[in-house]
Design a protein that fits this description.
The complex is a heterodimer of chains A (451) and B (119).
Chain A (H helix, E strand, L loop, with lengths): L3 E8 L8 H12 L3 E5 L6 H11 L9 H5 L3 H6 L2 E5 L6 H14 L4 E7 L6 H10 L9 E6 L4 H8 L4 E4 L6 H11 L6 H14 L27 E6 L4 E5 L8 H8 L9 E2 L4 E3 L4 E6 L2 E5 L2 E3 L4 E21 L3 H15 L5 E7 L25 E10 L2 H12 L1 H4 L5 E19 L6 E7 L2
Parallel strand pairs in A: 1-2, 2-3, 3-6, 4-6
Antiparallel strand pairs in A: 1-7, 4-18, 5-14, 7-8, 8-12, 9-10, 10-13, 11-12, 14-16, 14-17, 15-16
Chain B lengths: L1 E4 L4 E8 L2 E8 L5 H7 L2 H7 L7 E7 L4 E7 L20 H5 L2 E4 L15
Antiparallel strand pairs in B: 1-6, 2-3, 3-5, 4-5
The chains are: A alpha+beta (451), B alpha+beta (119).
Chain lengths: 451, 119
């Protein structure tokens, strides 16, 4: 009977370091222990972008970097019995499975690929459920995607059928980790204490390097060894669900500070971290450093899971445009300020607009410009600033008209503005709602790849 | 009493969900935690983020981790999919909290990390 399992993280988001999984798989294989590797590549809007790619071509709609991520590790994982679990199926898990099957055949390995679907609610039946649960959703014709967050169960089912790789669409991020643990240890679906711990182990892994020194360095205050080569995290989880977070070889670090930051990342009430599998509770968590980049987290528990499932709905969000122009030298800030004033007076009134001054106040303000009255109080007087103007609206022509007023600053604006850059792009907006658990029926299929 | 930036005493990370931002604030040393509880109140954080006009600020205490977790509502101009802000996630705002200056009693000043020497 297996008493311990290692789970490594190969990616923490869609844009993550592409070579990170290689060191993780090398270490997992060298350990000789029961192991799995997870890939979390789905942000809030990533799935909507995937749906748009699928509309263009029914063979696409999965994570665009999937092949690059798996090519160096697939053979090692299948031969070493390291399960690969990822939400890289995005908007099209069956197409992801086909790509993985082709890759396996190319690398001359036999592999079973589990495909988890059922999260997609954009069909007539799904939409009816959504409309019954929320009256704030946009018109059907504006909808791009609507996906429920599935839990660990369908992944456990796929692993039970012998899957070497499991490709999912929208699944709660920690469920990617919880599933192989349930599969290995046979934890009950109402064993809230263990499910809570396994879920938080997953929470620590799901953002990749964010627990091993990524997104952490603050030179002189929080230094990170070799930040250019951070080893991604590997958790060792026991049958009783206690766990230790470590990392693959390379740079980075794991200590009380890195684990505390990531444990609280995107957490609201620490006593109620909601997932489809459990309500995890870290309100009494404590962090114990074991040395050598190993940290144990004690005191985590769990409570009954929520009765509803969260759904993220993405829809056509109109257009966003951004224009920038630099001012340098004496009185630069005053000239940038005047330029903002000119653009504000000349651009269309019925689109949203916002100004920032990069070098003085690039992120702290809000759209209403509440902070602009105190602009002179932000930091030392600076001689190098860049005005940024952003517009948003559903009418492309009006947004373009706003942008044109930034461009016109060259000849008609304050003195010596330079380096104008203009960009306009369509935008996906997102909202969420909650639906009864019974309205979602996950489906599991197995695709076999034979070399 | 000496005035010290939180940056010398604690570290922080933000996370976003929709139009809601959370900021963890974690003491470097357990000895400093009671001071954070005393000084970094919901009201102090609401005032620090006045330019974003939070509709609510809620603080959770995690004494075993020497950490506070703040949840700020409606400070992301609609959140990552709606905001016009360059940093629509609010990722940079952890360091805005760390810029807050608080009075530190003399017996705790030794826990403040001074700026590193320039090499």
């Amino acid at each position: 009977m297996v008493e311990r399992m290692l789970i490594g993280a190969g990616a923490g988001y869609s844009g993550d370091r592409i070579d990170a999984p290689i060191a993780v798989v090398r270490d997992l294989r060298a350990s000789g222990e029961r192991a799995a590797i997870i890939f979390e590549t789905l942000g809030e809007r990533t799935l909507a972008l995937a749906q748009l790619r699928r509309r263009d071509n029914p063979n696409f709609g999965y994570e665009p970097k999937l092949k690059a991520l798996l090519t160096p590790v697939l053979k090692d994982c299948v031969e070493g019995k390291i399960a690969i679990i990822g939400n890289f199926g995005a908007g099209n898990p069956p197409a992801a499975a086909k790509l993985i099957a082709d890759l396996a055949a190319e690398q001359k390995v036999n592999a079973k690929i589990g495909v988890v679907t059922g999260d997609d609610l954009l069909g007539p039946e799904g939409l009816e459920v959504l409309r019954a649960s929320s009256n704030e959703l946009p018109d059907d014709k504006l909808l791009v995607s609507a996906n429920a967050y599935l839990g660990a169960a369908p992944i456990v089912e796929a692993l039970g059928e012998g899957a070497d790789v499991v490709a999912t669409g929208r699944v709660a991020d920690p469920s990617l980790t919880l599933a192989p643990l349930i599969h290995a240890f046979g934890w009950g679906y109402d064993d809230w204490h263990r499910l809570g711990q396994g879920t938080m182990a997953g929470h620590l892994l799901e953002c990749g390097a964010q627990v091993t020194g990524g997104y952490f360095a603050d030179p002189g205050f929080k230094d990170v060894p070799r930040p250019e080569a951070i080893g991604f995290p590997i958790a060792a989880i026991e049958r009783d669900a206690s766990f230790v977070i470590g990392k693959a070889q390379g740079g980075g670090l794991v200590d009380r500070r890195t684990v505390a930051e990531q444990l609280l990342y995107e957490v609201h009430d620490p006593a109620a971290y909601l997932t489809p599998d459990v309500t995890a509770d870290i309100s009494n968590a404590s962090i114990v450093e074991l040395g050598s980049d190993r940290v144990r987290v004690d005191g985590i528990t769990g409570h009954k899971r929520p009765d509803t499932l969260k759904v993220t709905v993405c829809y056509d969000g109109g257009y966003i445009a951004e224009g920038e122009i630099s001012y340098y030298g004496p009185n630069a800030l005053a000239r940038a300020r005047l330029a903002a004033d000119v653009v504000r007076k000349r651009s269309p009134k019925d689109i949203r607009m916002r100004c920032d001054i990069i070098g003085v106040l690039s992120v702290l303000g809000d759209d209403t410009g509440r902070a602009w009255s105190d602009l002179d109080t932000f930091g030392e007087p600076t001689h190098d600033v860049r005005l940024r103007v952003a517009f948003a609206g559903s009418d492309k022509a009006l947004v373009e008209r706003g942008l044109q007023e930034v461009e016109a600053l060259y000849c008609a604006g304050p003195a010596a503005g330079g380096g104008i850059r203009l960009a306009l792009r369509p935008r996906i907006a997102a909202t969420s709602c909650f639906i009864p658990r019974s309205a979602v029926r996950p489906k599991v299929e197995i695709v076999e790849a034979r070399s | 009493m000496t005035e010290v930036q939180l940056h010398a005493l604690a570290h922080a990370r933000t996370g976003d969900k929709g139009n809601r931002l959370n900021i963890s604030l974690i003491a470097y040393d357990p000895a400093v935690y009671p001071l954070l509880v005393q000084r970094v109140t919901e009201a102090a954080v609401a005032a620090r983020f006045a330019y974003r006009k939070p509709s609510a600020v809620k603080r959770y205490e995690l004494p075993n981790m020497y950490a506070l977790n703040f949840v700020l509502d409606d400070v992301l101009d609609g959140g990552v999919t709606q905001a016009l802000n360059l940093d629509s996630h609010g990722k940079t705002l952890s360091f805005h909290l760390l810029g807050l200056r608080i009075p530190v009693p003399e017996n705790l000043v030794k826990y403040a990390k001074l700026a590193p020497a320039k090499s």
